Amino acid sequence: MKQLIPFARKRRQWLRAWSAAYRTTGAERARFLRKLRRLAHTFRAAFAVPQWARVTAALAALALAPNAAEAQVFAAPNNAAFGLNTLSANTVVLPSFVDMDNDGDLDLMACDLYGSGVYFVPNTGTAAVPAFGLPQPSPFGLSDTTMFYSGFSDLDNDGDIDVLAYKFDYYATDNGFHYYQNTGSATAPAFGTPAYNPFGLNGASPATLLSIGRFADMDNDGDDDYLAMNFYTTGFRYYQNTGTATAPQFAAPVINPFGLTTVGLGDVSFVEVGDIDLDGDLDVIAGEYDYGNWNVYINGGTAAAPSFAAPLVNPFGLTAGGEFPLSDLVDLDDDGDLDLLAFNYNGDAKYYQNNDPSASVDEVTTLVGLAPNPAKDRFSVDLGTATDWSVVVLNTAGQEVFRTELRGESRLDVAASQWPAGLYTVRAQSDAGMQTGQVVVQP
User: Fold this and answer.
1) Cα separation of 424 and 441, whole Å?
2) Any residues with CB less than 8 A from the CB of 408 and at least 6 apart, and which?
3) Which residue has the higher pLDDT, 24 or 284?
4) Which of 5, 63, 259, 288 has the fewest Cβ atoms nearer than 10 Å?
């Protein structure tokens, strides 16, 4: 979903990366520059046009930095994450993580798709170590149990969170989009009577049946667009915001935009948006209805002009989420990369923690001793010091293709002639810490 991450957290990550970029050189500096580029993308909506112009000028040097994709490594799922599995017993829950009380960490807005409404589950822990309290039903005046609350964003750019919901009731006459403007504050939200089909949206049309989606700046123009999944008639729906960050106006939906396809997903699915491969543009993920496989659509275009190839199924170490997984793609451990949390039909709250070491600025040292790079039949790994190392090589699916242990040695030759061409992540772990790098293997 659109990353409604508290500004203070992003500011801390930005300052650490900015400082590190100026202390380092070569591949190490390039890594921090890539992180700054990604953070700039998430910061954009927080700035007025003159402010953003100054930020853009300050980042002019990033144009010279490489923009390579990076493999993610998701851990095996925790099937009872944070104690939240009690929320979804005998029901189906769509999670949305957002800082609803403006205290610097992410809370949970849990929407029950079987009709008992939405619940506010406050984070009583921290940004890095969440702990969730008791669910509060019908919070902040959101009391309609026929609403699918899924769009959380500051749509009027006034500093607090507004809500876009979709209503579908076989016996109702007001099916469609409903906009709840926050008339309270960032710390104490309050929502009154919703506006029906606002900003040019038309959810009453049969072609938009159950268009439940997420906000994301799909065209990188500084305002929120809306990407939805259309139930039963299947298909992605892209509502481009042709207005502004302060006064949104949405165009008629485009069906299966940017090359997206729902083949294999089944009749019912949800969509998530985020920079999954950490290359500065937005990717898309959706879970299969029947088997829970994760379909990841990597953006091969640009941030402003997305273009999606056929989906990768369960890449980066992801495993099936169970029947009818409803998810949110969000940084739950405050380490700078996107994790995945999903509720499924069986009541599991599956947490896939992203353990990609290259996304955090404080955890690892970049492995610069990879040569030749690109490589053909073999490459060497130079760790710089003679000590005990465990070395692992992972492909883009997060699968281990090589492992060895070094004892009192600092250099390793790796044969890669039998590997498929592609990008590989090399991770070396010792008592002194971790080094990580990437090597391209050519045919």
Assistant:
1) 7
2) 386, 387, 388
3) 284
4) 63
